[in-house]
Sequence to fold (437 residues):
Amino acid sequence: MLHSVLSWNAVQYTVQHLAKVAFPDMKAEVEVAHKEAVIHVESFHVHLPMLSQEEVGKLQTGRMEYGSLLSKSGHHVPFFRVRPSEGNGLEKQGEDLFCAYDLVTLPFLLMSRKEEDLPGASRDEHGRFLFSGSLSDRYGLVDFPLADEYALWLRHEVCAAFPQWEVCPRPPRCVSTHDVDLLFRFGGWYKSMHTLAADMLKYRSCSLFRQSFRQWRVSHQDPAMDPYVLACGELLRQDMARGRQSIFFFKSLCAGETDVTYDITSELCGGIVRHLHSEGAEIALHGSIRSAGDGQQLSEERSRLEAAAGREITTNRQHYLCFTPRETLAAWQVAGLSDDYTLGFAEREGFRCGTCHPYPLYDWEKDAPTEVIEHPLIAMDTTFFRYRHVSREEALRRLRELKQTCETVEGDFILLWHNSTFWREYAPWYKEVFCEL
Fold:
């Protein structure tokens, strides 16, 4: 065990991520010693100290004192001092740079989701880890990716100390993702009449009823013309027009299963999935609530979607963003998944994992990184009108801020917008927020 509470593997895992973000075009080697980690890049060496076990205990409970520095993205980022220093916190001695701050412990707790195993961690009725009381809440971290800010600060200081070195930045990306919780607004007679009646009784809108009735008549003749199906095509066109990667996550349940809203084994659903892919969309799995802790169930759902799509599926996002570190990560590994897009807060937009760069998740039991690559979710449509209850103007402002932050740290802005957040009362959200982003 190191001087820090983190294992050697945990330190190396975290520092490798910092090095990858700080020096994306350079070969960096990480060495872990008793009281520090060292990044070897080209001919220089960056020494990173770590908090003691007692200090880590204070950090985990939100009692650790810290200072802050203004980051490249304009955020006041907390820094935990380990050793005394003058000036910028990075002291140069020949080819060696000695950092005064712990850049390792807090990023590891966020990236590995180890914070979810700490005393006092709270979850909601769906078993989801809550923002309230999290380390992001206690230290004010949710509006910026801490690990990436640390890495970019490190790059800036290294380049200032060794001006002969130039770093080629990583191009940022914007990824638009769509969870297809509901593929059809209209279904059988009862469901169709129920949703039509809601337009009159709930929304008291004759014009909305007439629009819905016309949609029902068309979709009754051709289910592929259902408004929720058409929304998928329109979202894809908007994504492609803006140069965004577009991923659709389909539930893979069939008749008789809990929470089934469409039968992925039907020819109709399979045809819709294949058509979206032919138009340029990436098709991915939307694992059921049950599958978040059941690898065999998730494997079966993956196989069904592969049959419907006619291709291999290795990308996933859990329904309701359900995730518990041990059980869900184990299920993903059993199911043979390579990429996941689950990890964001349902009730708060921002940076749950402390990074907006793809990174391998960490297996606590084996004390080693896994082969499952996490793509952290930054923002979701329902967060703003179901949890935060903010205006469309405020939602757009926040999304633009988060997108700009991701671009500044050369990461990926990953947005979740449901295909059902398109029609009726959600039409203004689609037009004034999604289409303006």
Remarks:
- The chain has two domains: 8-161, 173-185+226-342+377-436.
